Amino acid sequence: MKNHYRNSKSGITLIALIITIIVILILVAVTISVAVSSGLFEHAKSATEMWEDKQKNESNIGNGPITINGKEYESIDEYTKEVNEGTTIPGEDITKPGNAELKIGDYIDYIPDTASNYFGLGNTASEKAGSTNNPAEGIPQDTTLKWRILNINQDGSVDIISDKTTESKVYLYGAIGYNNGVYLLNDLCKNLYSNSTLGVTARSVNLIDIEKKINSEWIAKRAEYAHVESGLKYGEGKTYTGDYAYSPELFMHVGQTIEEESKDYYTSPTKDTAEQRTTFDAKQTFYHFMVPNTYIDDSNFYSIIFSGQPQYWLASRFADCYNLHVGFGLRSVNGASIGGSTLRYLGFVEHDAGCAIRPVVTLGANIQISSTGGTADNPRTLSK
Fold this sequence. Notes:
Blueprint: H1 2-38, H2 40-59, E1 66-68, E2 71-73, H3 76-84, E3 94-95, E4 107-108, E5 147-152, E6 158-162, E7 170-173, H4 174-193, E8 202-204, H5 207-211, H6 216-224, E9 237-241, E10 246-248, H7 258-261, E11 274-276, E12 279-283, E13 289-290, H8 299-305, E14 312-321, E15 326-334, E16 337-345, E17 349-350, E18 352-355, E19 359-363, E20 368-370, E21 382-383
Antiparallel strand pairs: 1-2, 3-20, 4-5, 5-6, 6-19, 7-18, 8-19, 9-12, 10-11, 13-16, 14-15, 15-16, 16-17, 20-21
């Protein structure tokens, strides 16, 4: 009985399975017949082909022939490549700032407006530069200067700098020289080396101009610099109190970043000097070292700045932090080294320092620079 029960149950299950398969086959046959008769496969194929055509057309948008500024290009990609590579667009006989033809070190035929001697420095200890060594007849315009590209900026403007230092020196003395130094250097360059026709204003070169081009080796060397007495490294700070806690007036109003130390705080020379403070904080922003050519990647830039020129001012201040007092001064380049001259230290001791200057002019993107020339004998010309 037991075995008969199992065989009977298996037979019934097999019959049900066969019937199910037959039903499924009938349904499939009917479905295929309907699909074929209604053209469903043809519609699906047509839709696929249309989608592929759209994709192909979209991928080719802009890649057909195109004409820009009178020149035919195979595609917009070809034009974009040409622009990115900095080639000159046909129809233009000038080079826009930032194009590949321009390079750092190129000579530019820049001619400042004729200018009278600059008397803004004064020659007494109680005003302006604070030094009696500045000539009573003022500082003359140096007409022997040539001009070279110093930097090509992302906004399309170009910075140019005199190819050498000026023959005249500018003397700064003490706290008043520190307070007015950046303003006076920029004001002197503005008065002697601007060009009203081009609409450009000259200024003094500063530390920002140089640090735009420094590489990791310079940065590492700067980070290692430590004051020989206090041991404070570049950027480290200290609070000062007591008998030697003097600071120039300007120091109390500006920050201690490179940008702040290069700002014109005053709109005219101040007569403020220095005062003793109950307390004040200062950071070690001064550093001094020889600059090998490996510290700047662009060899032309290096030769322009560190080419063995006589010592010249950078319109940027510094603080040099001793144990009990701070030295305040302006930065400078001397041959192949960067450093500066301390004008006030030990609270009330003051010094006189004289350096040449190097003016900088920023040519806006609206100023046209010729696509030919660039040498000392054949400089690039300017027009507006």
